[in-house]
Amino acid sequence: MRLVRCVALLLLLCLCGCQRGMDPVAFQADGRPPSLSDWHVVEVHDGKLMLNRGVVPYDLNTPLFTDYAHKLRTIWMPKGVAATYDPNDTFDFPVGTIISKTFYYPRGVKPGDVARTYDSSKDFAGEGLDMTQVRLIETRILVRRESGWAAIPYVWNDAQTDAQLARTGAVIPLTLVAGDLTREDFSYVVPDESQCSSCHAQDWVTRKIHPIGPKARHLNRDYRYADGDENELEHLMKVGYLTGAPRPADAPRNANWMDPHASLDARARAYLDINCGHCHNPKGAANTTALTLDVSAAEDRHLGLCKPPVAAGRGTGDHLFDIVPGKPDDSILAYRMASKDPGEMMPEIGRSTVHQEGVSLIKAWIATQPGECVALH
Amino acid sequence: MRKWILTVAVAAALAACGGNQPSGSADTATDDFQARLQQQLLDAKPGSVIDIPAGHYHLNRGLSLRTDGVTIRGAGMDKTVLSFKGQVVGPEGLLVNANDFTIENLALEDTKGDALKINQGRNVTIRGVRVEWTDGPQTTNGAYGLYPVKTQNVLIENSTVIGASDAGIYVGQSNNIIVRNNRAEQNVAGIEIENSVNADVYGNTATKNTGGILVFNMPNLSQAGHSTRVYKNTVIDNNTDNFAAKGAAVASVPRGSGVVINSNDKVEIFDNDVSDHKTANVIISSYFSTNYYNTRGVAADYNPYPKGIYVYDNRFKNGGDAPDGMKLKMLKTAVYGMSGKFPDVLWDGYVDGKTLVNGLPPDGDRICIQGADGVLNADGPHDYKNPTTDTKAYQCTLPKLPAVVLDPAPKA
Question: Which of B284, B55, B280, B247 is nearest to B165 (CA)?
């Protein structure tokens, strides 16, 4: 009976002119709604994962690696408020902001198979994801409430119709199939709610969580919006979600780690920044290690050059220093990136496979570092 | 009341996971337990007590807690066992980022990485916890057993750690610490106090590790450690081959080390029973001896010299007869002959040359040793060329350190 009433109400609302058959985005001031669709941010309709009205997609110059998953990131704000630009840190977002990140893969041939590819051109159809082409895994919501940011994980159901609250995360067996048909079985791990803080609490004293991606240096790039290409910072200013941003040319910009025109150094630093900097920063979880990998780190021992490890344990892989200039195969940094043993790999969570192309990039970068580490006695 | 409810909740969950599930395998049962425990950790509020009844539970994901004032309590270190064998997500068994945390009376087994890591927190009590890697010493074991780092006011007592591939009990970059009445066995380092200030380590037994009790200072970290007292411990027969991965801080510890001080200051070693260490019952050394020291990778303000070390009134027995590594073997033979042995105390001989007055460090920085059968200055700075056995330089006393007082006192 209640369901019938809800459906009737929904129909009525839609008749009143809601976008794409969706209710307006629903900011949830507290609690954890049981379904992703309760937020009305992204929803599956007519064979597509659609973005609701006012939900703006974005990408990062260089993203975090998550087992080759593709990611659809969105941001939404209530009317009349905007984020304040910051050149270095996460923008100061107003209460009511909802950020979503949907992890998905292009489908493989067999059920359980997913494609290992960087090509996302077939994922999109119109303004959403074409469900015949992709398998949705999880959607994470970051919501800015009066009390601060909250992270709420949802896992997509088998029917791919909606995602359900999954506070304790999930382990999903998948097989990555590469272009040459090589197969790799792995466990895709959806972090539990507490583990969200492992990355999003970038200060382990305050323990407050923040979005990581929406910083000037990550968003200063073009995006293919429905109505054409535009710089993301300019677009956010234009739609009223951001105030105070300078012209893109005057804002910081991380390199795209795959951009052949960018310098090796810029690509490697961008990669380390987004993949490691959330813990390896002066206030983060890994500030116990004296290894700093965000963009602020000076190119010396702070970045690991000739630095002895502190508590790497067996993560050293029998190597003496975090980075041995010119010697990627003697460097702990590259060793830990190339491992998928939970006892030694880096990052510690968020992947179950090795990012081969990322490891290659960092190894190439280490190979170009000059000098050596000379032991003193 | 709350405690009772939680106990009942877990018990109910366990009952539901019991034998009467028609198609439930043992794995399904423990999956339910894992999800329930994760949920309890997420829902915990200050004051919550999470009781875990007796049982052997299998978990495949690391747990984490980020709420202040939580107690996790088992039915006993041999009764409530959380086994992480085959763990797919880690690296820790339990990661805590919270204040006023207590964990007691349970066991954590076979974690891929550290068993219990407490990163950043005040007022931490670890009591009656057993950590064990059940296949014995292996390089592939997790690094640390009980690992508070950047913590203040820490008590670790009546706990047991077996098999850590780095340090069994490892307190790093912390202040105000008591480590007492624990047992550390078959780890590379039994107990290690690193870059920490004000630590009392007493009443512990460290045996069959590579090194028994270590007090270290590493470079580049948030604070330099000083003021540690190691007393009334039984440190015996720590002669297990070093099975740490190369590059780990403890990989440089020779097999057969009793108490090792490296680059730390104001360390007092007294009233211990220390015996049967094939390299030496006490080693005093500098970061220079680790092979990791290089100007590029080490902060310029790092002090690599052990200063203000006071060893007295210990009961030493045996040892020094079969030191680890070719260099130390040759040194022993050169100074004491084939059938001779190192004395109780081995010092690598690095001194802060710029502070010397008439060939001796300032009073408070000296190495003072009483009650040992000898001290060998190995002359590390000159590759062991001119070792000396004269003990006159160590005949001195140092002001005794005050006892550590935990404030607030831990709850019983």
Answer: B247
Same domain, A213 and A298: no
A93 and A160 co-located in one domain = yes
Interval A32-50: pLDDT, tens: 999 999 999 999 999 999 9
Q: Hey, is the C-beta of B301 within 8 angstroms of any chain A C-beta?
A: no
Determine contact, residues A274/A90, Cβ cutoff 8 Å: no
Matching residue, tokens 């097999």: B255
Same structural domain for residues A244 and A271?
A: no
* A&B contacts, CB < 8 Å: 194
CB pair distance less than 8 Å for B220 and A341: no
As a whole number, the mean pLDDT across chain A is 93
Among candidate residues A194, A218, A249, the one where a domain is terminated: A249
- The average confidence (pLDDT) of chain B is 92
Pick from B200, B305, B324: nearest CA to B258: B324
Same domain for A217 and A138? yes
Q: What is the ipTM of this complex?
A: 0.92
Pairing of strands B345-347, B280-285: parallel
Determine, for residues A204 and B381 on separate chains, whether the beta-carbon distance falls below 8 Å. no
pLDDT tens-place string over residues A186-204: 999 999 999 999 999 988 8
B294/A374 Cβ within 8 A:
yes
How far is residue A26 from each of residues A15, A39, A41, A55, A99, measured CA to CA in Å? Answer: 18, 5, 8, 12, 12
CB contact under 8 A, A343 and B119: no
Cβ-based neighbours of A73, under 8 Å, separated by 6 or more? A57, A58, A59, A60, A99, A100, A101, A102, A213
Which 3 state secondary structure label does DSSP give A301? helix
Does the global pTM surpass 0.90? yes
Please tell me whether residues A244 and A269 are part of one structural domain: no
- Is residue A301 situated within a structural domain? yes
Question: Is B353 in CB contact (< 8 Å) with chain A?
Answer: no
Contact by Cβ (8 Å): A168, B39:
yes
Q: Which of B120, B220, B294 sits opposite A290 (nearest CB)?
A: B220
Flag whether residue B246 sits within 8 Å of chain A, measured between CB atoms.
Answer: yes
| Residue A226 banded pLDDT, cuts 50, 70, 90 | confident
A377 in any annotated domain? no
Average pLDDT estimate for A278-300? 95
At A366 the pLDDT is 98
Name the least confident of A149-158, B68-77, B354-363.
B354-363
Rounded distance, CA B327 to CA B385, Å? 11
Question: Is A347 contained in some domain?
Answer: yes
**Residues 26-65, chain B: which have Cβ within 8 Å of A?**
34-35, 38-39, 41-42, 60-62, 64-65
pLDDT of B121 reads 97
Q: In what order do the strands lie in the sheet with A113-115?
A: A113-115, A170-177, A183-190
Domain assignment of residue A182, given as a range? 26-249
The Cα of B386 is separated from the nearest Cα of chain A by a number of Å equal to: 15
Count of the separate structural domains present in chain A: 2
Specify whether A317 is located in the same domain as A168: no
A110's tokens: 């067999």
B26-43 and A193-200 are packed helices; what angle lies between their axes, rounded to 10 degrees? Answer: 60
Question: How many C-beta neighbours within 10 Å does residue B219 have?
Answer: 23
pLDDT tens figures, B21-62: 333 334 445 778 999 999 999 999 999 999 999 999 999 999
pLDDT for residue B287 is more than 90: yes
**pLDDT at position B26:** 40
The reply to whether A346 falls in a domain is yes
Q: Of A249, A272, A294, which residue is a domain's last?
A: A249
User: Token pair of B216, please?
Assistant: 């270290």
Confidence band for A4, pLDDT divided at 50, 70 and 90? very low
Name the helix (H) or strand (E) containing B274: strand B273-275
